[in-house]
Amino acid sequence: MSLTHAPAGAVRQGSLRELNLALVLGRIAAAERPPSRADLATATGLTRATVSAVVEDLLAGQLVSESDPAPRSGAGRPARGLVLADQGPAGLGLEVNVDYLAVCVVDLAGEVRHRTVHRADLRPVAPADALAQLVEMAGAARDDAADQGLTLVGAALAVPGLVDDAGLVRLAPNLGWQDVPVPALLAEHPPLIEQVPGVPALVVDNEANLAALGELHSQPPGPSSFLHISGEVGIGAGIVLDGALFRGVRGWSGEIGHLPVHPEGRPCRCGGQGCLEQYAGQEAIVAAAGLVRAELPADTATARLAELAEAGDADALRALHDAGTALGVAVAGVVNLLDLDTVVLGGGYAALAPWLCPPVLAEIGARVLTAAWSPVTVRPSTLGAEAAAVGAAGSVVRRIVAQPAGWLARAG
Amino acid sequence: MSLTHAPAGAVRQGSLRELNLALVLGRIAAAERPPSRADLATATGLTRATVSAVVEDLLAGQLVSESDPAPRSGAGRPARGLVLADQGPAGLGLEVNVDYLAVCVVDLAGEVRHRTVHRADLRPVAPADALAQLVEMAGAARDDAADQGLTLVGAALAVPGLVDDAGLVRLAPNLGWQDVPVPALLAEHPPLIEQVPGVPALVVDNEANLAALGELHSQPPGPSSFLHISGEVGIGAGIVLDGALFRGVRGWSGEIGHLPVHPEGRPCRCGGQGCLEQYAGQEAIVAAAGLVRAELPADTATARLAELAEAGDADALRALHDAGTALGVAVAGVVNLLDLDTVVLGGGYAALAPWLCPPVLAEIGARVLTAAWSPVTVRPSTLGAEAAAVGAAGSVVRRIVAQPAGWLARAG
DNA sequence: CTCTATTTGTTCAGCGATTGAATTATTTGC
DNA sequence: GCAAATAATTCAATCGCTGAACAAATAGAG
Questions:
Q1: Domains of chain A and any CATH numbers
Q2: In which residue ranges of chain A is pLDDT below 50?
Q3: φ and ψ of A286, to 5 deg
Q4: How many angstroms is C1' of D19 away from CA of B47?
Q5: What is the pLDDT, as a whole number, of residue A292?
């Protein structure tokens, strides 16, 4: 029904300023080139007087800074361009995955200002030890950020599993985690975050969700609704609708890996039968290509497949085609259901996209009722590896952009 | 990411009042019993002074009225309860379906104040003629509404097919419509609607979407996220997320009928194979139950099936069980993907729910990863037949509740 | 029956934020 | 060098919320 999305609570006198701060800052963030105050006034519908006042607050709070005047033709006083500050608040992104730990820092503009990746097989490592190592990496990241004039205002941790509202990792099957109380474990380490009203110090979320957010905020800006599929050992999807991640009632949306593609087919460890994961998961593709998994570490399986396919290996090509077809059946269902026009292949699928896209598109063409009127785009993710960590850090700074008042109240 | 849903445009001085009018009116609409001004103040966080001023506007604009004081224990001046007005703006709901035309009027409180249904096979009738008849029924509805002190501020038309943004019915296969420009056809008749800022005079939408909206606003209030499945000849779904209908990028979401449940199964008229519709659509169930369709008008097929199942007919029971299993496979996929906890069976499925629910629940239990932690409810729709018309009319008045300022500007 | 405690609703001065017009600042083009 | 054009700021006016005081209306105690 798309009613006005009014603020949930009361709209007080001060909310007015809060909302306009967010409005103006959001415009600056979304603009292609640095807008002037006058541009912002016409874009937002506010008067120039109000925009000036709002911008003054944003400048004082280190959220935006003035850039060189954008070249403009014609007469008149030159405008001063406004850009997101490269100092001030920043977000900390953390990721624990099967074969690596990653930490990164993203500034307001979405730039990655720090990045550390530690490759290791995390499956035999106890959760507390893995998190301790991550905290150590994060400490170095914090120091590096501070040197660049950045203040970490929040952290987000990406995990390949189901996470509940409290940050408890219910189940991360491929990592071997079960009921891991991440916030409690991290609370034992000294804090790295400067608390800001409106920004949670720590968010724990599914890796597929955060990777989708990363894709949403990547440059150049893409569509505001799409399906992002992370194909690893498991297959997870992040659903972005109208520029917002859709989490589901309990935050467990996106379990596309267990969509039935052959209802009477192979049994799956989830208890169902014929789940997508059994046909398009990393292990299924590897097995179908005739590779022996024991000789192939998890983190090189995808690269090896791409190599073989590149070389024209018939088994690998057939395996990828079959996986793409299974994926296409599932994606066609999702597209029929949600009417999305963009599907992004991320995670391990990104490197395999040249071979996966054709069969996926074929299934969509055959099965999607509306494909005749408007085409569906299937493309690889623009972010590379560790997309979830970048997305995680980005999700933190997006909160500042969406609610600058909290930061301003703190920073004076 | 669930950022604050800020108003899209500029927040001007007057927006403040607009937003608080909507906030207070929304609370009155959502309240179980008539709230007092003091109740509203504590519920919204506004001061009593502001609430009084806002309520004064709402009273003057005929959007709310004062009711008998709610009995309360303890001392103190008795409160005056506030309820949505039973006069003032109302919505017109229209529906063209395969075997009937329906018109209804719903008031602010969601009560159906007028209802007309005309049963007839609409397939041989030209779209313009069907719409002309609908307009005639709507004229009578308008007069009846006016006698009750109601003003029609908008209309919504439910159609069993794909509709684009402009109201063009691209395809309604079971009705035989293709590229029918509904707004243009209706514009030839004298207007029945009093234009109000913020309320479109006519919205054309998919029947499944509007039925889902009807379910969302039915009393008593249910969950704010659910999947509503309309099982007729085709199978459509309305997806309600966080109290809002999700329409998809082009407004064509919900095509659950073409979710593949047996990818190498029966060919479907959509061009795909093994679509749900081929296993759980009305015609498929009728055929599986051994009934001859020619002897069975479309509008009695469901009733006849229920009758047979009630009587213990083995063929009917088996047909319903198989259909329920196919439906369950599809629903399990949706639940995995969207993490919904409520599925409503509407349309023809409502009457068949006693036999469909068990196999659907069985498939969900077997296939949904998270079902172990929190159960999924599957239940029949509370609204009866013509749910889409009621939902359509309700969608109009919900706009007034969400944006009362438009109506108030008009009514003075 | 009267008085007090209690809760509801209104009145009013004060204030913060936006507005719109006037003013200042800075450049291009003639 | 001057006029036109565009950008940004200043300032009185206005709108709507706040908070506190006040008026209204009832239940219960004595």
A1: 13-70 (1.10.10), 88-214+388-407 (3.30.420.40), 221-382 (3.30.420.40)
A2: 1-7
A3: -60, -45
A4: 9
A5: 73
